[in-house]
Amino acid sequence: MGTGHQPPPEAQRFTLVPFQSDTATPDLFVAGLSLTGWIQRLGPELRIHYCLQAPLAELLLPPPAQQPQRCDDLWMHTCLEAFLAVEGDDPYWEINLSPSGDWNVYRLEGYRLGLTPEASVTALPFLCQQRPQQLELALPCPLPPPLAAAAALQVGISAVIEHRGGALSTWALAHPGPEADFHRRDGFLLRI
Fold it and tell me: How far apart are the first and last CA of the chain?
């Protein structure tokens, strides 16, 4: 990992964009903040690499956890996320990754329905590296069995960024609705 880290040739690159509404204040977004990365599927394994570039002193990042663990409500602070589904199937999965090392993987039965921790994932170690202007997070993880068995997956990538003062900005591949909503299938734009 590091500034010179290049994605594998077969990986898909992504760039996230902030949600903006009439009520969003201009100072909510840090000048020069960008969120990019890449995603790759290797059979039953998923690899995601996020790169947040910004003056990190202007953001609120949770400190590293002594013992990272599965936690709820990570999205209430800085959190990098991925949503995975099999096209045409109602169930989908949500991955939450905190810069602290804490994490969660949920299964949902349909749009925002039946949120439960994914039992097949009992640990999710990932690497997180910070410099004054950059945070990189690299996740290799096994896919839950229904996703591992699928020929192709729909993927949404998103993030919640907490700014000094506690304001949150939301970032995704696209924001197809009038409100920021990472669960909308029309925002799952990548195919792997």
Answer: 22
Q: Residues 119-171: pLDDT tens digits?
A: 999 999 999 999 989 999 999 999 999 999 999 999 999 999 999 888 899 99
DSSP calls for 59-112: B--PPPPSS--B-S-GGGSSEEEEEEE-TT-S-EEEEEE-TTS-EEEEEESBTT
- Is residue 22 over pLDDT 80? no
Domain 13-18+32-61+68-176 has CATH 2.60.40.1190: yes
The position carrying tokens 């969660």 is 104
CB 190 within 8 A of CB 16: no
What are the residue boundaries of the structural domains of the chain, listed by start? 13-18+32-61+68-176
